[in-house]
Design goal:
Blueprint lengths: L21 E7 L6 H11 L5 E7 L6 H8 L4 E4 L6 H13 L7 E5 L3 E3 L3 H8 L9 E10 L5 E2 L2 E2 L4 H10 L1 H4 L20 E2 L1 E2 L3 E5 H7 L11 H11 L2 E13 L8 H18 L2 H19 L4 H11 L11
Parallel strand pairs: 1-2, 1-4, 2-3, 6-12
Antiparallel strand pairs: 4-11, 5-12, 6-7, 6-11, 8-10, 9-12
Helix pairs in contact: 5-10, 9-10, 9-11, 10-11
C-alpha cells in the first residue's frame, strides 16, 4: 500500500559513487518516430544536471541508430544486435555507463516517448537517498506522468495480491483503486499530491541511485517486456530502497499500444502471473492466476480482442512456461 514508509526496515549500506554525471539511459526499438523529439527535449528536462546519454538499440530496422548518431553525436550508442527486450537494453546501457571514467552517480531510465518538463531530472535525482519513515531510503524516484491531452496518468502501484486481482476482476481497477485491499492501481488523488512511497511504479521514467543499482544488481532479462520494472522495484524494496513519487517533477508520456494490441496485452498479463509465481507459493499463484483469468474472460465476453487473447493464453498449460520473446 502506498504510504510514507517502506515495507522493509533493512537499510542498505551506503555506496561510494556520489560524483560523476547522471547517466540518461534510453532503450530503443524502431523508435525513429519518437526519438528526435525525445532528444530535443533533453536539455530542458535535464536542466541543472550534469548528464550523459546512452542509447541501447535493440536491432531497429527503421534508421533509429542513424538518427541518434546524427542528432546526438555525443551520445554513447550500444547496439545489442537483436531484439533483446527492455531489461536487456537497460543492462547494456548500464554496462556502458559503468565504463565511463569515474562512472556515474545516478541513472535515469527513460522510454523514448517520454518528454520531461523543465527541471524534472534534477528533482528526481535530488530525491534519491532521502530517508523514509520506517527505515530505508529512496532508491528509485518517479515523476508525475501526464497523457498528451494533459490527463494525469495513474502510475503508482501496489504489489499483486489475490484479493487485489479479484477486486479488479469484479469492479474494475480504477474503481477498486480507491481501496488498497482491492486493487494494484492507486487512484486516490491525494497520493499524487505528495511524496508517496509505493510498492512499484510505471517504468516509463525513473531515477535510480547508484547505491540501489549496486545492491540490487542487473535488471531481470527473463521478462523481455513488462513486469521488469515491477520486479526491480519490489527487489529494491526487499533491500530497503523505497520507490517514491516526487510530485514536483513531471513529464508527458506519449504511451504505448499494450492495451490495444492482443499480443502485447497477453505478454503483460502472463508476466504479471510469472512474477507473482516467483514471489509466492504454488497454491497462492494458482489462486492469483484464476483471479486474473476471471478478469480477462469477463472483459473478453464484451468482445475485446486483447482480453480474449490473454484469457486464451492464461488457460493454456504451456503459455506460462514459454520463454517470453519478440
Amino acid at each position: 500500500m502506498p504510504s510514507d514508509s517502506t515495507a522493509s526496515d533493512n537499510t542498505p549500506s551506503t555506496g561510494t559513487a556520489s560524483t560523476g554525471p547522471v547517466a540518461v539511459l534510453v532503450v530503443t526499438w524502431n523508435s525513429a518516430r519518437v526519438i528526435p523529439e525525445f532528444l530535443a527535449s533533453l536539455p530542458e528536462g535535464m536542466a541543472g544536471v550534469d548528464w550523459r546519454l546512452v542509447v541501447a538499440d535493440n536491432d531497429s530496422a527503421d534508421g533509429t541508430v542513424d538518427l541518434v548518431r546524427s542528432l546526438a553525436p555525443e551520445a554513447t550508442v550500444v547496439e545489442t544486435g537483436r531484439n533483446a527486450g527492455y531489461a536487456a537494453g537497460v543492462n547494456a546501457a548500464l554496462a556502458a555507463a559503468a565504463g565511463w571514467d569515474g562512472g556515474f552517480r545516478a541513472a535515469l531510465v527513460c522510454n523514448p516517448d517520454i518528454r520531461m518538463r523543465r527541471g524534472c531530472a534534477e528533482l528526481l535525482v535530488g530525491a534519491l537517498g532521502d530517508p523514509v519513515h520506517g527505515g530505508g531510503r529512496v532508491g528509485i524516484s518517479v515523476p508525475l506522468l501526464y497523457e498528451e491531452d494533459g490527463t494525469l496518468h495513474y502510475s503508482l502501484r501496489r504489489e499483486s495480491r489475490v484479493t487485489r486481482a479479484l477486486g479488479e476482476a469484479v469492479i474494475g481497477n480504477r474503481r477498486a483503486g480507491r481501496f488498497p485491499r482491492w486493487s494494484e492501481l492507486v487512484t486516490d488523488p491525494s497520493a499524487y499530491g505528495r511524496r508517496t512511497v509505493a510498492d512499484w511504479a510505471t517504468g516509463a521514467l525513473m531515477a535510480l541511485s547508484r547505491e540501489c543499482l549496486e545492491v540490487c544488481g542487473a535488471w531481470d532479462e527473463s521478462f523481455f517486456l513488462y513486469s521488469e520494472e515491477t520486479e526491480y522495484c519490489l527487489r529494491a524494496g526487499d533491500r530497503g530502497f523505497a520507490t517514491r513519487l516526487e510530485p514536483a517533477a513531471s513529464a508527458v508520456h506519449l504511451g504505448g499500444d499494450s492495451q490495444v494490441s492482443p499480443r502485447l496485452w497477453t505478454l503483460l498479463t502472463l508476466n504479471r502471473v510469472r512474477l507473482y509465481g516467483r514471489r509466492h507459493s504454488a497454491p497462492a499463484t494458482a489462486a492469483f492466476r484464476a483471479a486474473v483469468l476471471l478478469r480477462e474472460t469477463s472483459r473478453a465476453a464484451l468482445g475485446r480482442p486483447a482480453n480474449r487473447a490473454a484469457a486464451r493464453a492464461l488457460a493454456s498449460r504451456t503459455a506460462l512456461r514459454a520463454t517470453p520473446g519478440p
